[in-house]
Amino acid sequence: MVTAAGGTGGRPLIEMGSRRTHEIAAVAAARAAYIAGFASTSNLQARFSYGVPSSGTAAHAFTLVHDSERDAFMSQVSSLGPATTLLVDTYDVARAVRTAVDVAGTSLGAVRIDSGDLPALAVSVRSLLDSLGATSTRIILTGDLDEYSIAGLAVAPVDGYGVGTSLVTGSGAPTAALVYKLVARSDVPLEDSEAAGALDVLRPVAKRSVGKPGRGGRKWVVRHRTAAGEAVTERISLAPPDPAPADRVLLQELVREGKIVGREPLSAARDRHQAVLAELPAYALQLSRGYPAIPTVFEPTGEED
Asked: Which of 54, 168, 243, 281 could be disulfide-bonded to 21 (CB atoms 3.0-4.6 Å)?
C-alpha cells in the first residue's frame, strides 16, 4: 500500500482499521503499518504505547448526531480549529464542500471523501475547492481502499488516504501461512550441550506428514546481493555460511534463555524496513498476487521455493 501511494515520500496513509479487528490486534497492526511506512494511525493506544503519530477525521455518526451538517462542521472547527479534516460525503458532497469552506474559511486543512466514484469526486472537489479559494485544502480519500485501488488513484488530485479493513485483515489473506516447527533437538541437557558445542549435539528432526513435510536441521539465512547491494536470493543452509562481501546475514538474536534481547526503538525498526525495502529489485515492488519478491534457495541442493 505504501509503495502504491508513492513510498514514504509520496501521499501519506493513515491507518484506520481498529474497528475491524480485536482491540489489542488493532494496536499491533497500527505499529506494523507505521514501520512499513504509514504516516499515522487513528488508534490512540498505539500512540501511547509505541509513539506512533496519531491523526484522524470525524465519523459520519458525528455529522448525523447534529441538527445539520453546518452545525457539525462548526462544532468540529470550534474544537480543533480550521486545520482539521471535515467529512463531506454524509449527504451531498458539493454542498458539503461549500459549507465546509464557509465555516472554516479558505485555510481549511482537508476534506475527506469516503464513498462514491472516488477518482471522479476527487477531480470535481479539487476544482470546487480551488474555485472557492481553498487552494491549500487537501483531499483525503477513504472507503475500503487497498493497494490496487490506491494504485488506480495515482493520477487523481489526492493528497492522502485512510486505509482500514484491507490493512488489518490482510487484504485478501487474513492469516499468514506461517507456523513454528521444531527442526532440531539435543539428546543431552542444556549445560552439557553448551560444553560440547551446540552444533555437535543438535539432531535434525522433521515432520513427514503428507502435504506438510518439514526441513530438518538448524538453519542459517543470508540475503545474497549484487556488488551494488541489490537483493538476488535468500539462501538457506544447514551450516554456518561464508557470505560474500555484499551479502547480508539475516538471522538476528531476539530471545536468549527466555529473555528478549533484540528489542529496538520504533524509529529504528521503521528505518530498517526502508533500508531493506531499498535492497529489492524494481520488479519486486510490482503489484502481483502470489509471487515472492525474490526466490529462496536451499543449499547445498540449490532447490528453490
From this structure: 168
Domain count, the chain: 3
Are residues 209 and 224 both part of a single domain? no
- Nearest-CA neighbor of 129 among 102, 90, 91? 102
> Which CATH number is 65's domain given?
3.20.20.70
User: Does residue 202 fall inside a structural domain?
Assistant: yes
Distance CA 108, CA 13 (A): 19
As given in the structure block, the three cell numbers for residue 132 are 472557492
With 0-12 / 13-18 / 19 or more C-beta atoms within 10 angstroms meaning exposed / middle / buried, residue 96 is buried
Residues 42 and 92 in one domain: yes
pLDDT at 72: 97
Q: Tell me, yes or no, whether 174 lies in a domain.
A: no
Question: For residues 58 and 66, is the Cβ–Cβ distance under 8 A?
Answer: no
What residues have CB less than 8 Å from 59, skipping those under 6 apart? 87
In a domain, 65, yes or no: yes
Examine the fold and report which residue of 168, 188, 207 is the final residue of a domain before the chain moves on: 168
Q: Find, among 229, 227, 198, 213, the residue nearest to 303 by Cα.
A: 213
pLDDT, tens digit (0-9, with 9 covering 90-100), for 112-140: 999 999 999 999 999 999 999 999 999 99
Q: Looking up cell 541489490, which residue turns up?
A: 230
Mean pLDDT of 103-119: 96
0.90 surpassed by pTM: no
Cell of residue 100, nine digits: 465546509
Q: Distance between CA atoms of 305 and 296, rounded to whole angstroms?
A: 5
With 70 as the cut, is the pLDDT of residue 295 above it?
Answer: yes
57 and 95 fall within a common domain: yes
